[in-house]
Amino acid sequence: MSGFIKKLFGTLIQKPWEKEQxxxxxxxxxxxxxxxxxxxxxxxxxxxxxxxxxxxxxxYLYTIPPEQDTMYLLKPNLLWINTIILLFVTYFFGKITxxxxxxxxLKIKKNLIIVGALSYLFLFGQATFWFQLMxxxxxxxxxxxxxxxxxxxxxxxxxxxxxxxxxxxxxxRVLKLNNxxxxxxxxNISALSxxxxxxxxxxxxxxxxxxxxxxxxxxxxxxxxx
Amino acid sequence: xxEDFKNNKEIHAQSSETISGGTGGSAPxxxxxxxxxxxxxxxxxxxxxxxxxVFCQDAKIIGIQYFCLATFTGIIGLIxxxxxxxxxxxxxxxxxxxxxxxxxxxxMHGMIMVVYFLTALFLGGFGNYLIPLMVGARDMVFPYxxxxxxxxxxxxxxxxxxxxxxxxGPTGSGWxxxxxxxxxxxxPGSGMGIILMCVSLILFVAxxxxxxxxxxxxxxxxxxxxxxxxxxxxxxxxxxxxxxxAMLAFPALLVxxxxxxxxxxxxxxxxxxxxxxxxxVLEYGGGSPILFQHLFWFFGHPEVYIVALPAFGxxxxxxSVHSRKNIFGYRMMxxxxxxxxxxxxxxxxxxxxxxxxxxxxxxxxxxxxxxxAVPTAMKVYNWILTLxxxxxxxxxxxxxxxxxxxxxxxxxxxxxxxxxxxVDVPLSDTYFVIAHFHMVMGIAPLxxxxxxxxxxxxxVTGKFLSEKLGKWHFWTTFLGAYSIxxxxxxxxxxxxxxxxxxxxxxxxxTSAVGMNEFISLAAFLVGAAQFILIFNIIKSLKTGKAAGxxxxxxxxxxxLTPIVPPEHGNWGDRLPVVHRWAYDYSVPGAKEDFxxxxxxxxxxxxxxxxxx
Lengths: 226, 612
What we know:
The structure holds two protein chains of two kinds. Chain A has eight helices and no strands. By secondary structure, chain A is mostly helical. Chain A has a single domain, classed as Cytochrome c oxidase, subunit III, four-helix bundle (Four Helix Bundle (Hemerythrin (Met), subunit A), Up-down Bundle). By secondary structure, chain B is mainly alpha-helical. Among the domains of chain B are: 394-547, no CATH class; 552-612, no CATH class. Chain B has 14 helices and two strands. Chain B has a two-stranded antiparallel ribbon with strand order 1-2. In chain B, helix 5 packs antiparallel against helix 6 and helix 12 (431-461) packs antiparallel against helix 13. At the A-B interface, helix 2, helix 3 and helix 6 of A face helix 5, helix 6, helix 7 and helix 8 of B.
């Protein structure tokens, strides 16, 4: 991060019209960062998604009535199971990264399929959890606590579906490729791995917020922003 | 479309690996540039009419598509403003218009002009056309995504316009769409109207995100060799920073629109408090209308700069080219663009002074608002100092530039009034506010758009626009716009409220009636004057003077393509190599008063650097 800030300010103080600077500038290759365009896109999407989820979290803190039971959602087992599934996805992406380093192409194919299957399992689990909630009489319009839960999980699910769309494209390509060509897809696979890591981080932040933040903590947060 | 666009020559993008570091100058060491290390971009070249002109992946065509569609929606916004002014100036002639119609026109005019006209035109239109050309790229990094971006915008516009034809018509809740009234019965368009508005905005944000990704990554990662960030023209800096702002601000609009749709369709209460209606308690409860205001303005204020920053960048380049001077304080101009962009996220609540906020909260936002005046003023001084002792060409482009500076200063000064809580509270919701924001983010950016159109039209079509018609267009617009908005300040001072369908028998109406009639007449005239440009474009495409290569003798890369107008892939076989910044005008010792960015140092060895 400090390197990035140093680079940013170092750039902004350049004097492009001076002869000494001109000689340095002529060595520029036209790229600000040594990463692929795909990875750049994923990082920018993280920025946008971070703002989006931060606003959803802030809205949750802003509107949650103090009398509501903010521990309720953590009581059913399924939410914990879904969280563990998401952790496993990240674990398998970690394995894929290692497979790429070791050039073990067969394992890459297998683990990519596992990642996709677990992600769909997570979505299925979330949908099942929604049905459980509705069965217990807690609908999206019941109160702002449940509204926020449904809203956040829907957004997170859509975010995951977007990732699964690109996972489908990359995986179908990888499965068709000969083993020696799979490593050419490294940029796309590592971009996907980064994407899933971000999904996990957002989920954990949300999970901590609805689990750890008890009524008194929410009250304190609200006093800060109101 | 001009004949000049019919270029059938195919381009096969070749690898830059084959290009040597030197440029063929007489002193290879002096002209040394880094050898190409990144393989060249492969482009999809459309062959049918559909793939070349409709579902096209060429950023230049996409830019033109954005420009035309944004202009189309802008004309609808203009017609709506005429209808509003007819009601305000001559209500007896507007008998067909009900109060509901008026509110719907106000709402649609505001949203169309801010989002679907100005934002789409600056970022989608100029961004797509100019970014790849100005940074020396063949195209955007993700051309397919870029195409999808435009078509998302197209569908967003269709959905928005569809709301005119649904039962209840479009939403009439004001362009800020404040709940709870936006979704409750009694407000025009509270049914399908507001739903379609939200859907349209969601589509717009989704589409823009795809385009924005392209703008950012192309600028950061796909510049040509030698094109450092600080050698980029300020136009690119303005569009780049505005895109960063948009990427961070639009999620707030997205979240607000989604939540409001859920409140409307699924009965959630994100923005809905407990409400009593005709003695009955509605099913809503527990939500906060103020939360929507925060979300809306967290988007809404950066939105002002999403429009203004590209305008700042473009005007800087136009002034520099047409006064034959390097831009005064280039670095300061970049800092100001970046600084204004960053500060714009800390001022949103100055739109909410009358929402009942804590006084310290108001104090904080008043302070940050007034701080923004500092980098903004720096820019104005630098434009004037660029003009100072320049070899000014008093052509149509320069007239629009000068018109912009005056108008922006006018609008900016009234912004300082409104930034102060104690001055804002009595002026809030009066015509003073209307006058302020129309001057600063309506007319001023419009003048930049017009200047840019007259400047870059020869690049896009190979023809000049008529100077004579251009001057008629400028003077009618300039004088007309001041005839509209200067009197509005007075109306605001005497307390005439905005958003009123009619003024009834209010005591202040004695002096305001005649003024309203005058303003309406001026509005009709200014609106009609815009059709001079459309006539000028059609006439010039048919009979305009051929412009040739680099007709303004500019330095930046967009004018230096091997073929003008540039073809798909922009640069023929070889990407350009950049040796200098874009502002070497009237350099002492140079044979001509401009040195292009691709001119090698060995070709201009006797020149002296001017301090800036």
